Amino acid sequence: MSLSPLQKVRLNYQPKLPLILQNDIHNVAIKFGEPTESVSDQEKIKEMFPNTYGLPKISFEKAPSKASDKKQVVGVILSGGQAPGGHNVISGLYDALKKSNKDNVLLGFKGGPSGLIDDDYVEFTDDFINAYRNTGGFDIIGSGRTKLETVEQFEKVALVAKKHGLTATVIIGGDDSNTNACVLAEYFAQKKNGVQVIGCPKTIDGDLKNENIETSFGFDTACKTFSEVIGNICRDSNSAKKYWHFVKVMGRSASHVALECALETQPNVCIIGEEVEAKNQSMSDIVNYIADVVEERGNAGKNFGVAIIPEGLIEFIPEVKILISTLNDLLSKNEAEYSKLTSWDSQYKYACDHLDDNSRKLFETLPVDIQKQLLMDRDPHGNVQVSRIETEKLLITLVSAELKKRAANGTYKGKFNSLNHFFGYEGRCAFPSNFDADYCYSLGYNAYLLIANGVTGYMSVVSNLAAGPSNWNAGGIPITKMMNLEKRHGEYKPVIRKALVDLDGPVFKYFEKHRAEWAKETAFRYPGAIQYYGEPEVCDITTITLALEHNLWKD
Asked: Which structural domains are found in the chain, ordered by start?
């Protein structure tokens, strides 16, 4: 296989570790903190997870280790959507395993959780691992979205674990994938079969974060990748001076990616879904806000600009959120009946007949393409697939119509020519930034220390991330601490709580302070491509989000 020059060099990059993990593994001791409880629904979560609830926080300190020297056979899976750095989590786990005991074994189960169920695996070797170090993607073993939730599935996994003599399983994934990890850890603990389960926080969406998890891996690289291209579009917009670019960015429900990209590029408009919901803004409110910015710039002779739209915006608009929730429940409860409808006319009539008056009226006013996208097949969790709803095109259509009214009234003197973009898959498998390469390697390395110390039901965590790798802290947090109950497929299920944009936090407040200036002026910022070699202040920078959260950002 022919390798690019960058790939050849990146394979030899040695990721940086926190100082505590640079010690000999046998001189790193586990330290237990205070017991924990779930973020909400404590009694019900405790009842669902009697064997893994209330565990203490974990940190590590330099001291003689009491970790077991027994041979470890560890299984690892990649779960959910791709995120830059997944290969380095596996590399860090492998290196720590082998450093502890050269006879330790790491098995990679292919295609996500289904590989663990079907016993589809590969045993990692030095040569195999070395071909994937510091590279993007999940192609080392593939990924999948199978949910682990039935007794039959658990029994199959238990048989696979027994066959291979697994002592632990590491699940690398987002909030839903680590919910799988939590449920599996509880099952193994109940059966007392000795198999530990450790999770690692992954998602480019940035919504797997809390007081213990400062950021999920992949967010840094994906945002920098999107910001590079958005910066290029900003430059083109300011050069041609004749287009408004509407850019939708991936991020599922939360607007973290859109907000970070706005901080990086300073567009004229960026809509934050969480603000829309908090202020009870309607679709009309959003359209009028964008039209106001376009009008002011157009009347000043600036018939160009850039607007960033979060992927999940449509779910935050109150009347649309109600419509989507109603449709989710309707299609979940009546899946068999609805699946028999083959024509669009019959599907449309079925939806309208089962909606209340307000939701039906809203549904009827939407463009047909958006109606069809709202009725598409749901994701594995029973939710509408927001990435397939062309919100950016919907806003262009509505803003254009509003501007025509204003032009007819004589208030708008400019011209509105628009282009639309959707950035998502372009960033999920990018070469990880130095930050993600180091962070992911540390997460995997740290996961082994949790395994060696015999704990289960924990998330591998590395913190103090804005201070540089040598100052990072390592440890573990019980997954049950992050759990709450949410409605899925019409029923309440235990899941890890998603972290939405904090409207009172320093990141949004900084954006809020500057957005009026960015709307009126052409203040575009051009972050450029991710740099891997050179000065640390260029190559090892974090996201602006992380810098603001640690009070380290300077204009």
From this structure: 28-218+432-488 (3.40.50.450), 219-428+504-549 (3.40.50.460)
